[in-house]
Amino acid sequence: MTVHIPDDAPPVLRSSIVWPALAARAELCYHDTLPGSEERLIERIRDAEIVLNIRSSQKFTDRVFASCVRLRMVSVWGTGTDHVDLAAAARHGVTVTNTPGVSAISIAEHTLALMLAVARRIPQVDRATRAGEWARGRSVELHGKTCGIIGLGAIGRQFAKLAAGIGMRVIAWTMHPSPGDPVVPLDELYRTSDVISLHLRLSAETEGMIGAEQFALMKRGTILINTARGAIVREIALINALTSGRIAGAGLDVFVSEPLPPGHLLTGLDNVVLTPHCAGITPEALEAGLRMSVENIWAFAAGRAEHVVS
Predict the structure, then answer these.
(1) Disulfide: which of 14, 158, 236, 281 matches 108 by Cβ 3.0-4.6 Å?
(2) From edge to edge, which strands make up the β-sheet containing 27-30?
């Protein structure tokens, strides 16, 4: 079996503990740079039957699938598949798998860290203290506040436990609720939450779902946390809400354009804490996800595909 890896950049697979076992069982066509264009991606995987997709920066479009006629499987490292045209994959008979749940604990912990950093103004207070200032009394206590969670998948449920663990009242809205979930109408969540945390996949239904109308419903002290996908929130509406004081602050690990362009408006806002889409990239989550992505290949080859998205 030959496995094509077109996009391990920056490299994580080559140095992982799963690499030796993968190399022992399959011939590898490996690239540690990003394709950079649809044409280059096609060039790299034109003869591929199995693709192990590490990064989501390059889209797998209908043209990609049409050009790679031997392709039978794309194993995605990660949960998000918004960079893959799933309908096109199905039309071309390509199975797409992902690695659900493996990063849930790491992302939930990072979400908690962002929430506390914004509420307690940790970056700002750190900078001020290093500069010789002694600014105190500007933070927010979260115990007893309401945490509204949008999306109760594996990550959302894990974060709900952490938020409840520090004494927050947890409410939620989700597309597929289970009995006993603390679900409320979405408008009620916007109006009553002190913190709103996003844990949805990016799709046609969720892209741009939070804009000026939704920010207008929120309390002036609301904190928004996004560790899901940047495009779920309309960026200009978010910037306007932050600069006008419509909401108190935001903790963001994801953006519409990644990496975040130099001089981006968000980088100049003092009420925002920014991290570089790293919530799920801890050693533990990284190895678990890479292992599952490789195991998905073996399962597919054995005729018992697992974690199939399309």
Answers:
(1) 158
(2) 27-30, 2-5, 50-53, 73-76, 95-97
Report, as ranges of residue numbers, the positions in the chain whose pLDDT lies below 70. Answer: none
Tell me if residue 258 is catalytic: yes
* All structural domains of the chain: 2-102+283-301 (3.40.50.720), 104-274 (3.40.50.720)
Reply yes or no on whether 70 is catalytic.
no
The identity of residue 232, as a single letter, is I
DSSP string, 112-165: HHHHHHHHHTHHHHHHHHHTT----S-----TT-EEEEE--SHHHHHHHHHHHH
CA–CA dist 269, 166 (Å, integer)? 27
Rounded to 10°, the helix 104-120/154-165 angle is 40
Q: Assign residue 303 a region: left if phi > 0, alpha if psi is -120 to 50, beta otherwise?
A: left
Between CA 275 and CA 251 the distance in angstroms is 8
Kindly name the residue from 25, 264, 277, 287 that is annotated as catalytic: 277
Measured distance CA(225)–CA(125) in Å, rounded: 19
Catalytic site includes residue 277: yes
Catalytic residue chosen out of the listed positions 229, 234, 291, 307? 229
Strand, helix or coil at 90? Answer: helix
Q: Where are the alpha helices (DSSP H) in the chain?
A: 19-25, 38-45, 62-67, 86-91, 104-120, 122-130, 154-165, 186-192, 212-217, 235-244, 283-301
Burial of 2 (0-12, 13-18, 19+ CB in 10 A): exposed
pLDDT in tens, 39-84: 999 999 999 999 999 998 899 999 999 999 999 999 999 988 999 9
Q: Which of 27, 133, 258, 284 is catalytic?
A: 258
